[in-house]
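Appendix B. Chain record.
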Amino acid sequence: MKQFQIQFKPFFHGENLTDKFLEEFQEKQEEELTEKIISILEAKGYKVTPPPKEVKDEYTFDRAWNLYDKKVGCKAKLEKKWNSMSQKDRKAAIEYIPLYVLSQPNKQYRKNFQTFLNQRGWEDELIGATPPPAVINEQPSEISQLITKTRAVQERNTDDAKNHALRQRIFGMIEVLEKNPKSFCKSLLEIYRDNGTLERLGIEWNPQT
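Structure tokens predicted for this chain:
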């Protein structure tokens, strides 16, 4: 079968349109024109490979490919797969990859990048990913910055969850104590009051004497 690959550049420029509208209009026109040409060529017996979808944000395939650093598989197919992902998934993968690389420093034991994408590997739990010590006066690398950012989010989420659980537990103790003034919960609440936990969690407790 005959092979034919097409790719188009912007072809319409309107002087009186805003930049954003012009860009959206160009993309729509290009897509429609591409579909029409593909249909015509396929009707004539050509096997057409559409131009790859472009990523216009910072979460690019090349960035992920280099961070992952296990260059196995067809790069063109992997890039097409990557570009078809949502921005949310690409962002999550970019932020996850540095920690995954640290947890598997020997690339031999890392999943192939295709497997990582197909299995949505960025949703897996990580064990043993510890950032390397920083060198004095060294400019933080991208991987170090991503690790720091990811760990900060994880720690914040963990602290929030712990505080929420403790807050619910204390409210439960107060409810029990109201029903049974002789409950041992009073001693625990006094400890939380004296060590500042109640104040830190924004809980007011005024026991009746």
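Further analysis of this model is presented in Appendix C.
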